Amino acid sequence: MADMYIRVAEEENEEPMEIPSEDDGTVLLSTVAAQFPGACGLRYRSPISQCMRGVRLAEGVLHAPENGWGNLVYVVNYPKDCGGFMDPTYGTFPLHESADNKRKMDEIDASSAKIKRGDQKTSDLIVLGLPWKTTEQDLKDYFSTFGDVIMVQVKRDAKTGNSKGFGFVRFTDWEAQGKVITQRHMIDGRWCDCKLPNSKQGPDEPMRSRKVFVGRCTEDMTSDDLRQFFMQYGEVTDVFIPKPFRAFAFVTFADDQIAASLCGEDLIIKGVSVHISNAEPKHSGRGHMMDRVRYGNGFGAQAFGSSSSRSSSSSLGNFSNFNLNPAMMAAAQAALQSSWGMMGMLAQQGQSATSGSSASGASSARDQTQYSTGTSNYSSGSAALGWGAGTNAASSGSGFNSSFGSSMESKSTGWGM
DNA sequence: GTTGAGCGTT
Prior knowledge:
Layout: E1 5-9, E2 17-20, E3 27-28, H1 29-35, E4 41-45, E5 52-54, E6 56-58, E7 61-63, E8 73-77, H2 99-108, H3 110-116, E9 125-128, H4 136-143, E10 149-156, E11 163-171, H5 174-181, E12 185-187, E13 190-195, E14 211-215, H6 223-231, E15 236-240, E16 248-253, H7 256-262, E17 266-269, E18 272-278, H8 314-318, H9 326-339, H10 405-408
Parallel strand pairs: 1-8
Antiparallel strand pairs: 1-2, 3-7, 4-5, 4-8, 6-7, 9-11, 9-13, 10-11, 12-13, 14-16, 14-18, 15-16, 17-18
The structure holds one DNA strand.
């Protein structure tokens, strides 16, 4: 059978790329994803109904519509709320741009879209929970199974040379980083977490927290119990139970809206009424509750948009309080981004794997023998949705800082949840 | 018993 190709494009009216089909006339999703990283399916506009239709997908195989692939242009589907690439900053698919926004961006700067496909810079990742005995060679050996490792460090006490129990690792490629961030790691007999270090994290929007506080917990509630219970509302990416027992817990969802929807509720878990409320930022200074407005980005809750449901026009509306016109908005965005250093690095709230430690038997005096207490609540969490900002305005830079000075204060305050 | 551990001598 002669080679057959179907035409695939990222948007309906964009130039299509020809993608080869298999001998049986199907097209492999992996073939599509090879050209459009992050793709999860295809759709097309039905010539009859004029509606978009999904292409049947089963087991990674895309099946032609009834009358064959024809000459239609198939449009790539990306995971919901995703601009079309996997973001190893979070190990998931954030990028909170609406399709509208994305299109605009592409018009403005086609090359920036390219940056987002695969060529991202990696970042150092902090490795928490290392056994004291783990050496840099150990780290390198372990992490090399994920990809090319270009840097490892074990942080040690300057005087004694003893490990501080954490280190850093950096990969060449973004995909490796993504993989590593989304799972826990058994290193020399201990479960370790890899995350973006604080220094690489941007601010977060309090109204968009994915984490809730669960008050009035009882001691018999394991993190597994909580995970199981809260799963009914949406994907749970993290459960944290402080040790020793303190009658509360934190539950993080993949979706901020789920979290928000539960706040204020009294829920019954194992026959006990627990109270759900907003998770306050860790280490927030004296501020409390009502002060929370200070923790935003300074431009209103949704100004730079987050994961869900932002219409492309609403962000302007949110600026009305500040009398900002679109130019100033762009400037503000540039200023914010440049102040975070790494362009395109998305801020992060609560990472996925972290609090498995609540079940790991670790404590301030870490038990290095570590045959953890067995409440292994971890089903290798599926990563966190992060806060996102557009990635391409950053070059304008620092000159704007002074004009937005007061707003910028908020950037480093708390919410590194 | 209602707010979480640890974050880089550059």
